[in-house]
Amino acid sequence: MIASYSDAQTSQVWQVLEAVPDPEIPVLSIVDLGIVREVAWQDDCLLVSITPTYSGCPAAELIRNQVGLALADAGFATARVSEVLSPAWTTDWISGTGREKLRQYGIAPPEKATGRRGLFSPELTIHCPRCDSRSTECISEFGSTPCKAHYRCLDCLEPFDYFKCL
Amino acid sequence: MTTTCDQKDLFTYVLRLGDSGLVLGQRLSEWVGKAPMLEEEMALANMALDMIGQARNFLSYAGELEGKDRGEDELAMHRDVGSFSNPLLVEQPNRDFAYTMVRQYFYASFAERLFEQLQHSADSRLAGIAAKAVKECRYHARHSGLWLVRLGDGTEESHQRVARALEELWPYTGELFEMDELDRRLLQAGVAVDVQAMRADWREALDQVLVEARIPLPSDDTWMHSGGRSGHHSEHLGHLLATMQILPRSYPDANW
After folding, report:
1. Where among A58, A83, A108 does a domain terminate?
2. A9 burial level (CB within 10 Å; 0-12, 13-18, 19+)
3. Which of A15, B67, B96, B189 could bond B5 through an S-S bridge, CB–CB 3.0 to 4.6 Å?
4. pLDDT tens per residue, range A71-109
5. Which pTM does this prediction carry?
6. What's the pLDDT tens digit per position in A32-68?
7. Residue A139's closest chain B neighbor by CA?
8. What are residue B253's phi and psi, to 5 degrees?
9. Domain limits for position A120
């Protein structure tokens, strides 16, 4: 970062990014999701680094375009949006606000700090995002998008998405 | 790049990883529209997507290393069978669901261990791709492993099918753990992974699944197929490529 760009400008950039929704879970901004890794300045150019949630995430390209457009609208016409793979995204980077937004949207947020799960390790306890019951069952390890699994609540009987822990 | 090794070696190494993901991803995607149930349709499509995403990362990098202006699409769509360097296992046809799950378990549980180590590679770009891929492959191994148990310990029909798939695909697993001179040079440089040394752990995890699934354990003395990594493929790969490549080959500049 060089001195001619004030902290005020940097925080303005973050504000712009906070208004860019995730295309598949629009209640979450890309900042809530934790995929914006860096905002930096190089000479006259604004550099924004984004990391994909999954290697094959089909939304990654769309997100980069949306970020570029949003920044251009806000007057940062020379912004460059690049993809970084390392360090790899983890669900622990979803913000507290993000987790609450997910729950309200009907998606159970990822369990924190559940690392590696073996083949025969016990099932996770996932709380129903609607009635908060702990009595839920996994219907499918894969859901409607790469980042979600499919669950059902055994109390209120609603099916729901669980944001996979990664 | 933080290390000294031959660019050409590195290109070949990365290309092999990319080809493996691409071919397996294409195979898995063949299930779309005809999986046994909706949940598995999504699971297969999701795994296909992960594999193709990993392949894109590897192939883009391979293209840069080669320096001949070939990008991921060029490498995926404009090479013929003899230039593909994936192991024979991943090009084997889907046949039935049991067959697909056994193939998936064999590869995913191998890839999980490979990427686990590759994320510490001296080549930082490879390490970055591997750190993403390891989480995905771990999930695939878990999913397909649970299916092996369910099918093996299920009905007589499902047991027979999964046991047959295991027997038929087993001879393709040896190639996964092969290492040639190139692998050894890159291992020396701290770039590549010693896959031979991973085999015992892979086998142990497999046996644990098979015992649970009540499927007989395969013998380590089985004769193993080989050749995919050097471009000698089974008759199946050509058909797969024909389907995958026809559009970009017929309309070279086609765009969405």
Report:
1. A83
2. middle
3. B189
4. 999 999 889 999 998 888 999 999 999 999 999 999 999
5. 0.91
6. 999 999 999 988 789 999 998 888 888 888 999 999 9
7. B39
8. -105, 20
9. 94-163
**Which of B57, B136, B145 shows the shortest C-beta gap to A119?**
B145
Question: In the structure encoding, which two tokens stand for residue B173, read together?
Answer: 């697993």
Say yes or no for a CB contact (<8 Å) between B43 and A140: yes
> Going by DSSP bridges, is the β-strand pair A80-83/A148-153 parallel, antiparallel, or unpaired?
unpaired
Sign of the CA dihedral with A59 first, then A64, A65, and A67 last: positive
Q: Tell which phi-psi region holds residue B41, choosing left (phi > 0), alpha (psi between -120 and 50) or beta.
A: alpha
Identify whether B85 is part of a domain. yes
Residue type at A59 in one-letter notation: A
Contact by Cβ (8 Å): B58, B71: no
In a domain, B222, yes or no: no
Q: Do B129 and A52 touch (CB under 8 A)?
A: no
Q: Which helix (H) or strand (E) holds A37?
A: strand A36-42
Contact at CB, B50 and A56, closer than 8 angstroms: yes
Task: Please indicate whether, in this complex, the C-beta atoms of B143 and A141 are within 8 angstroms of each other.
Answer: yes
Candidates B52, B68, B48; CA nearest to B18 is B52
Residue B222 sits at the vertex; the CA angle it makes with B219 and B228, to the nearest 5 degrees, is: 125
Secondary structure (3-state) at B96: coil
Give the helix ranges, DSSP H, for B124-175. Answer: 124-152, 156-169
